[in-house]
Design a protein that fits this description.
By secondary structure, the chain is mostly beta strands. It is built from no helices and 16 strands.
Length: about 260
């Protein structure tokens, strides 16, 4: 890594980490012997031309205020533990020629608290969560131009107030865990806009804006094939097929 904090205290301003073909950008974790958590705070961060992860939080507390995380060769931001604060951060996804399945933000554990964050240009997924202890809490989050999913969750917890999505193939796929969205706009997609197979999705004051002109056949704004969909004041519009399609599971919506 350009900088690795393993149980210490590190504070920086106007930090740039660039050009590494064999390492990542920043790593924050805990000290092996004592278990002391690292505390890393940086204001005005730029990470660019990094072959591996730009930011990894394995433990402790990592805070980024005003950051530009340029495209990386693997998952751009990754958490396995600890708490990562993203305030006014632009996460610019993955290199176009990166190999494998890579995401802009990938969580197997830990917590991300995001405010005024733009996640864009992911090779696969803007926000991918696959961990029972993974928690993402956000306000004013935009996810755009993901090749596949804006959000894809297997297990974990996502709570976002003020989500905006645009130019994604799917916006949300939930295969387990819980997703809560409030005061959000889900822009047009090529395939089903929101897909629920397992777990829970709650929508309050959310607009689901159907599909793009080049959409595939037989797609819906809200597609439920298991799990539970709940919420209130949900608008579906500009849909290719159904606004709400329920094949299995349950859907309970007030003021649809």
């Amino acid at each position: 890594y350009g900088i690795r904090n393993k149980g210490g205290r590190f504070t920086a301003k106007n930090l740039t980490i660039s050009t590494s073909t064999k390492a990542g950008g920043i790593n924050n974790t805990v000290q092996d012997v004592t278990g002391r958590p690292g505390i890393f705070t940086v204001d005005n961060l730029v990470v660019e031309n990094i072959r591996y992860n730009n930011v990894v939080c394995d433990g402790g507390t990592l805070t980024i205020n005003n950051g530009q995380l340029e495209a990386s060769g693997t998952n751009n931001v990754k958490t396995t533990g600890g708490t990562l604060y993203l305030n006014d951060v632009d996460v610019k996804g993955n290199w176009e020629d990166t190999a494998g399945t890579n995401h802009a933000v990938y969580m197997t554990g830990g917590t991300i608290i995001a405010k005024n964050v733009h996640i864009r240009d992911a090779k696969v997924t803007g926000l991918r969560i696959n961990g029972e202890t993974a928690v993402f809490t956000g306000s004013n989050v935009t996810i755009s131009n993901a090749t596949k999913y804006a959000i894809d969750q297997t297990i974990g917890l996502i709570t976002i107030d003020g989500l905006k999505t645009e130019k994604n193939y799917y916006n949300i796929t939930n295969n387990g865990g819980t997703i809560h969205l409030t005061n959000s706009y889900l822009g047009p997609t090529v395939s089903n806009n929101v897909r629920l197979y397992k777990g829970l999705i709650t929508l309050n004051n959310v607009v689901v804006d159907g599909h793009t002109p080049d959409h595939v056949d037989n797609v819906h704004a809200l597609f439920v094939s298991g799990g539970e969909l709940t919420g209130a004041n949900v608008t579906t519009q500009n849909t290719s097929n159904a606004g709400l399609r329920v094949n299995a599971g349950t859907a309970t919506l007030e003021n649809l």
